[in-house]
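Attaching the record inline, Q. Sequence:
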Amino acid sequence: MPDIDGVLFDYGQTLVTFTYPKSDLLEVIRNFRPTIEETLNAPAPPAEIILDDVLLPLERYVSSESEDEVDWLDAAKTSWDMAGLPLPDGLLYEIVDAEQMCWDRIVKVDPHAAPVLSLLGSRGIRRAICSNAPFPPEMMRRQVETNGIGALMDGVVFSSMVGRRKPAPEMYRAALDAIGVTPGRALFVGNRVREDYDGPRSLGMRAVICTAHNSEPAPAGIPSIASLGDLPGLL
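Structure, as predicted:
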């Protein structure tokens, strides 16, 4: 693909991987319980109950197939309210921020990500993240800055910044605009067929599935690479 000017990357399960930081999240809740009780002037449930009744139900938004993105703070407020814990906005933000710091610490960057991104940059190929993530934009920016991926990108677009989720075309257009590349000169790299192959191709991009962190190979007939380390060989 010698005529590629830019590469858009999915984030989770492509550039990085996560494991659910249960113990860290429980510690966050335990640390905030006294403040919650003081604020509400009432006893708060144990941390384990809050995790089950408030945090875990929010996970459905992370993998939602809707093309409309939620406002994470609004969704979190609703979840706390439904658990009988109506928190003021300031305290809610502090808790969400502390929760996201748990994810910042647990994220693991794919070992091939930095070398490949650096190589693309040295070739003058523009690079951008284009990924579904409902969390507040400032917290996602902090995460990619902390793990080093942000410094290797020319553009960073998460769905919380756009209000739409892949495969909504607005997501891809926002990422393409961020790096000044047209669809016909762009390649998309991700791990899911609907969001990272079919969606980009509907706008005229080329696409390839990276199966490094998938439990199954790509479906027959869909171009794939086994590792991000294989990407430079395509360009």
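The chain has a mean pLDDT of 97. DSSP finds nine helices and eight strands in the chain.

More tomorrow.
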